[in-house]
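Deliverable D2.4 — example input (structure tokens):
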């Protein structure tokens, strides 16, 4: 922290929360730091009453940060009339500003630390071994439909990749796609009646809009009502589409129990984008008619997925040139994930234990007690908006509000609402997801900020010299 500016944080102010700065130099030092942190979008103004003045920085979400002179000190005051999100944002900003050296200070900041990546359920970084394989495969020539030598070699590589993907789920025809979203769309392209849940990924829910759909209920832990699905399927020919693992909570659905009870006329599609290679025993069940898989969830490249189809006649072959190099890389990522499955699972479970211990002081409460993927945790921060917590965590950890395809939506997660959470409760939830090599960062400072946010009142604190707010 700069010698020019020191922060005293008062956590239990009766009329709100503020920061007081005791400084050895002119308060322009503090103000310059604040202005620099706010950036070009802020509007700056100054009001003076003789020797007393108030400087105001207005920023684009109805929040004001003020610097006003008092004898021997400068008060930084927040005025908030929107959401908890902005509160946590400016807690983080103030902490960052005053940990930086002020102009003229001899202290230099250390190198910025990259936040720990805890959003692997959205996308996992490509394994270096897979990157090397992809680089090699991209240099190989040949169109897999060509009849010359290069074409036959390319077709052989493609067929080898298809065998790897198919064998990982117990067999079937592999239809290459650009990812899980396209695979789900192809699985749902035909059919007049569908049975699913409201906890599915948007790539399942959105294609079903306006079609005949029966939504089976979930219990409070996010598990589907098997009896309800079976009853809906028994009413006539239909497509049953369920995610093996929920993309928001990681909860594993009772796929085997469903598979053994569904009538023969029900076509059973399982979205295994999150669970592929992590619980392959379930995906090998012969009653599964189509399975969606994705490369970039398991350390493969972005841009390739597959729909593995077992019951013929419903899904048309995909036209166009097959992505041989991407398929080869996906194949290697699959083999590595299966070969290292035990070690990865054990490591992810250890990270999960560390994460739960670190989150406990933050007031975290898991949204489900059901069996879930070992690398996914969805937890509520009771009394706090999840966006506020996400922003408070941002300097040390990248986490998600849920499915990346819905991350920008202001609405709470449909999956959490389907579990019976209220809209307020659903807005308190964050998804943490990691890999075997993840390390949980120190969350001590975040815990202090969130505890203060829970107990502080956020009012307009600036009072002009005449006593009028």
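Example output (designed residues):
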């Amino acid at each position: 922290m700069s010698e020019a500016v020191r922060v005293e944080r008062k956590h239990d102010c009766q009329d709100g929360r503020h920061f007081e700065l005791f400084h050895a130099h002119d308060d322009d030092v503090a103000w310059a730091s604040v202005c620099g942190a706010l950036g070009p979008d802020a509007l700056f103004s100054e009001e003076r009453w003789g020797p007393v003045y108030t400087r105001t920085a207005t920023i684009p979400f109805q929040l004001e940060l003020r610097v006003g002179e008092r004898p021997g000190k400068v008060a930084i005051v927040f005025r908030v009339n929107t959401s908890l999100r902005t509160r946590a944002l400016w807690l983080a900003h103030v902490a960052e500003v005053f940990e930086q050296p002020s102009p003229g200070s001899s202290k230099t900041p250390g190198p910025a630390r990259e936040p720990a990546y805890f959003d692997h359920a959205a996308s996992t970084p490509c394994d270096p071994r897979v990157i090397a394989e992809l680089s090699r495969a991209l240099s190989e020539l040949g169109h897999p439909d060509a009849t010359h030598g290069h074409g036959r070699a390319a077709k052989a590589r493609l067929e080898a990749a298809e065998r790897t993907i198919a064998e990982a789920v117990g067999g079937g025809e592999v239809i290459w796609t650009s990812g899980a979203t396209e695979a789900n769309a192809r699985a749902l392209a035909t059919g007049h009646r569908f049975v699913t849940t409201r906890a599915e990924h948007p790539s399942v829910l959105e294609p079903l809009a306006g079609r005949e759909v029966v939504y089976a209920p979930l219990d409070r832990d996010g598990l589907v009502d098997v009896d309800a699905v079976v009853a809906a399927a028994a009413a006539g020919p239909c497509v049953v589409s369920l995610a093996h693992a929920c993309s928001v909570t990681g909860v594993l659905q009772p796929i085997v129990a469903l598979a053994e009870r569904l009538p023969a006329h029900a076509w059973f599609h399982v979205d295994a984008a999150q669970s592929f290679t992590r619980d392959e025993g379930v995906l090998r069940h012969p009653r599964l008619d189509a399975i969606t898989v994705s490369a970039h969830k398991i350390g493969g490249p972005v841009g390739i997925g597959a729909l593995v189809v077992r019951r013929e006649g419903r899904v048309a072959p995909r036209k166009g040139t097959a992505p041989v190099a991407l398929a080869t890389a996906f194949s290697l990522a699959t083999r590595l994930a299966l070969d290292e499955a035990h070690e990865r699972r054990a490591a992810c479970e250890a990270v999960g234990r560390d994460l739960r211990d670190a989150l406990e002081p933050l007031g975290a409460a898991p949204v489900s007690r059901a069996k879930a993927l070992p690398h996914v945790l969805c937890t509520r921060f009771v009394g706090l908006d999840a966006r506020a917590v996400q922003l408070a965590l941002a300097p040390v950890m990248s986490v998600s509000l849920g499915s990346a395809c819905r991350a920008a939506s202001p609405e709470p997660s449909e999956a959490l609402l389907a579990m019976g959470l209220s809209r307020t409760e659903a807005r308190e939830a964050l998804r943490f997801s990691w890999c075997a090599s993840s390390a949980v960062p120190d969350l001590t400072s975040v815990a202090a900020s969130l505890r203060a946010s829970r107990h502080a009142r956020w009012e307009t604190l600036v009072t002009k010299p005449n006593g009028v707010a």
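Residues 261 and 305 are 29 Å apart (CA to CA).
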